[in-house]
Amino acid sequence: MGFQRDLFAPEGQAVAPVPGMLLVEDAIGAEEERALEERIDAAPLEPFQFGQWRGKRLTANYGSAYDYQRGRVAEAPPLPDWIEALRMRLAPLAGRDPQDFVQALLIRYDPGAGIGWHRDRPQYGEVLGLSLSAPAVLRLRRRRAQGFERRSIELPPRSLYLLRGEAREAWEHSIAPMAVTRRSLTLRTLR
Ligand SMILES: O=C(O)CCC(=O)C(=O)O
Ligand SMILES: [Fe+2]
């Protein structure tokens, strides 16, 4: 369990596949994972909608939501207690105050759902993501003079990743369509 450990402690279990990305395996236990899965499934998840385009993944926002219609950050329902509690534990791992993470985004990727290449909206800052239910591969790419430089990072269930700095700003990320259901909970600061 990585929770008492500073994510940046050199002797810690965190690894940095690209500068600014940190990954901690087994950040939570299997029982807690099951509880979080139930919470996510009980949340008011809706298909991600971008104009006419409807994504296959299901999402729910708390605290802050990006309004794709207006191209700006908007308010969202307050964080429920269970997310507040999780935020209290996870934020210190990124060396931040819990309140800095103003947004919580729940996502469920049922079979066939993924997320295409993107950088997170620039209005948001650091991203802390908890990966649940099934192994996934976070693909990263950044444009070079000749094509893309690429990385693939395995996200085991119950792992926690942090995106900041170069990994957050210079690289795009995506997750290929899942064969089995995966869930994630991401927390974001405002820039
Ligand atoms: O599901 C994840 O872990 C990543 C989601 C993501 O990249 C996003 O919502 O911007
Ligand atoms: Fe993202």
Automatic annotation (TrEMBL):
**InterPro entries, per this entry?**
AlkB-like (IPR027450), AlkB-like_sf (IPR037151), ALKBH4 (IPR032857), Oxoglu/Fe-dep_dioxygenase_dom (IPR005123)
Domain of life, per lineage: Bacteria
**Domain Fe2OG dioxygenase: where?**
100-191
GO-annotated biological processes: demethylation
**A single GO molecular function term of this UniProt record:** dioxygenase activity
- Alphabetized SUPFAM superfamilies for the sequence: Clavaminate synthase-like
Keyword terms:
Dioxygenase, Oxidoreductase
Q: What is this protein called?
A: Alpha-ketoglutarate-dependent dioxygenase AlkB
Question: Which species is this record about?
Answer: Pelagerythrobacter rhizovicinus
